[in-house]
Amino acid sequence: MPGRRVVVALVVLAIGAGCADAPSPAAVPAPAPVPAPVPAPATADAGAAIGPHGPSVPEEPGALARVLEDTQATIADPARTPGDVAAAARTAQVAHEELAFRPERLPPVLAALSPRVRESTERIVGAGRELLSMAKRGPGDMLPAWRIAAPLPPGELRAVYAEAQDRFGVPWTVLAAVNLVESRMGRIASHSEAGARGPMQFMPSTWASYGLGGDVTDPHDAVLGAANYLRANGGDTEAGLDRALQRYNDDDRYVRAVRAYAAVMQADERAYLGFHAWEVYFRTTAGRVHLPVGYDEAEPVPAVAYLARTGAPR
């Protein structure tokens, strides 16, 4: 599978991985009926309300632990509005990112958490640490030449994962986790430096073998293509799933990160709604910069110049 960018927990860093030779395509199973979509709230359009640097979270461990408890309770509560869920998820996203970048802060926060929130926090922060360790370089002065688009609504995308699981036997949580890591569930709509394309980041040659004749940029087609590829490499069995993910990206850290995010969703399906609401940020020497839907730069742009152009405080 291709070398490509990988999205780190909250903040995007440039990461590369070697492209494994694609195995011979497996026979494609006959399509199965599409499962009924799991009801899920559409993410509220936060837009400029998020701000140029994202939500703020407290430094003090006990206060940060309370933020994590409150945000997870909101995400897990089916009675909360879509806007409440999305806002809580974005705050939790920043909290997890801060702990991933500053792991010395993690132990006292974990000590103050309830067992359930502690487990999910360890998994999410651990996934972020794994992906951060894959980064080719640290924060720089420039923002990327990317286009940021709105993802499919959560209910629609969840139904696509269900269809792919039913047809190819790959767990929907794993497909969602790959989608999260590769493109923030479709928000990063531009190609990678290595030439990988679409929300599941396929190299053209691999897509030709596993894309089922679909459109690599279409979320439905891309997820089914990824499930087809993973199944061909044993991803429809628990025993073969790690090996299949290793073929997708030849790095143990990538496999562990995807499995950690998937485990969080397996433990509580509503965690998917939280991940779906995560925004795209890029860490620079000017700090964490929010790249909203509509961000579209043909060439890298200095972060300071972008913030000045958008009227954001630096």
Would you give an account of this structure?
By secondary structure, the chain is mainly alpha-helical. It has helices at 61-76, 82-101, 106-111, 115-132, 154-168, 172-183, 204-210, 219-232, 238-248, 252-267, 271-276, 303-309, and strands at residues 6-7, 11-13, 142-143, 281-284, 287-290, 301-302. The strands form two sheets. Strands 1-2-4-5 form a four-stranded mixed beta sheet. It has a two-stranded antiparallel ribbon with strand order 3-6. Helix 2 (82-101) packs across helix 4 (115-132), helix 4 packs antiparallel against helix 10 (252-267) and helix 5 (154-168) packs across helix 6 (172-183).
Quick structural summary:
The chain has 314 residues and is mainly alpha-helical. It has 12 helices and 6 strands.
Give the arrangement of secondary structure elements.
Elements: E1 6-7, E2 11-13, H1 61-76, H2 82-101, H3 106-111, H4 115-132, E3 142-143, H5 154-168, H6 172-183, H7 204-210, H8 219-232, H9 238-248, H10 252-267, H11 271-276, E4 281-284, E5 287-290, E6 301-302, H12 303-309
Parallel strand pairs: 2-4
Antiparallel strand pairs: 1-2, 3-6, 4-5
Helix pairs in contact: 1-2, 2-4, 4-10, 5-6, 5-8, 6-10, 8-9
The SSE string, one letter per element, is EEHHHHEHHHHHHHEEEH
Number of DSSP-assigned strands: 6
Dominant shape = globular
Please give the alpha-carbon distance between the first and last residues.
39 Å
